[in-house]
Amino acid sequence: MFRIKARVPRKVIAMGLPTAWGAMAITYKLACPLAQQDSLGARVVTSAVFFAVGTGLILHVRQALVRELRQVREVAGAAQSALLRPLPPRIDGLNVAAAQHSADRGARVGGDLYEVVATEHGVRAVMGDVRGHGIAAIGTVAAVLGSFREAVHDEPDLGRVLRRLDRALDRQLRERTCDDPVSEEFVTVLLLEIGRDGEITALNCGHPWPYLLTGTTVRPLARTDPLPPLGPFPLPTDLTPLPCGTLLPGDSLVLYTDGVEDARDARGRFFALQAALAGAVRNEPITPQAIVRTLFAALVRHTRGKQADDIALLVLRNDRTRLHCDAPGARGTARATTHNPQPTNHL
């Protein structure tokens, strides 16, 4: 035997309660003898009745808005978890920490993107920055990250990974142009590949170069001019990855978006990221998690919590001498290299 429980729709309740309160106020004014009197006591009672009805309406509207805001935040949190999935603390022998902050207070997801994946070709990372921030940038972030997560397993060369990202962005921009003909969007992208021996290769399209931390020394990973951002210009024919040295055991890479160095204080001074990193590692090497916390705290102090742009940080440290990744296929590890690599799923 089935029982069907009737449930009053929330919209009916939302509209019915204010209507009932309004009807009670009008009925009191038209039908109650006390409301027809012109004495001071009658006026006080009438005013009290209408004040109570008005207060009830305001509280009802406020409660509805709070409930709707809570639902929006839950949706935003789910979107953030789907787009910028929490990174495991260890990926193929690398210690990893990342964090991001949206400049739009109404959105938990901004225009910054990052991901780190262990593949048969090495550990591959992406850091990107979509023009604009907040809700409007989510579609582009999803297109670029989705393409990256597939391409890093399929393509043996970083140049072909970058072309996959460029095609995904082009499709996204064509769809956006149909809805918004004046929309001009671009994405800065940094692709990194770290081999088993720590060798670093990179392709940079308009993004800030990361910093390499070696002991207490802080220096840019490379000083060459990057390629133009993805979107406005076609990629060049030759996309040979740039050799950037070796990430030795104990060394760290700090990837970031331009919102970090562009952050200003009340006097208009930019945030000195290299100096902040030098201060963080002056006494002793610290973990990537501590570096992220230290930099975010320094940024909040510098801007007094009023960032004008999205901020993202990603720190990778080579801990391979202290961590052995012998379990093939485990989360955050890569399978042994094969001569005929097949696409794998990112767990």
Automatic annotation (TrEMBL):
Q: Where are the transmembrane segments?
A: 12-28, 40-61
Keyword Membrane in annotation: yes
Q: Where is this region: Disordered?
A: 326-347
Q: Which keywords annotate this record?
A: Hydrolase, Membrane, Transmembrane, Transmembrane helix
SUPFAM superfamilies named among the record's database cross-references: PP2C-like
Q: Which SMART domains match?
A: PP2C_SIG (SM00331)
Taxonomic superkingdom: Bacteria
GO: which molecular function terms?
A: phosphatase activity
- Keyword Manganese on this protein? no
Compositionally biased intervals (Low complexity): 329-338
PPM-type phosphatase domain segment(s): 94-318
Q: What is this protein called?
A: Serine/threonine-protein phosphatase
The species is Streptomyces ferrugineus
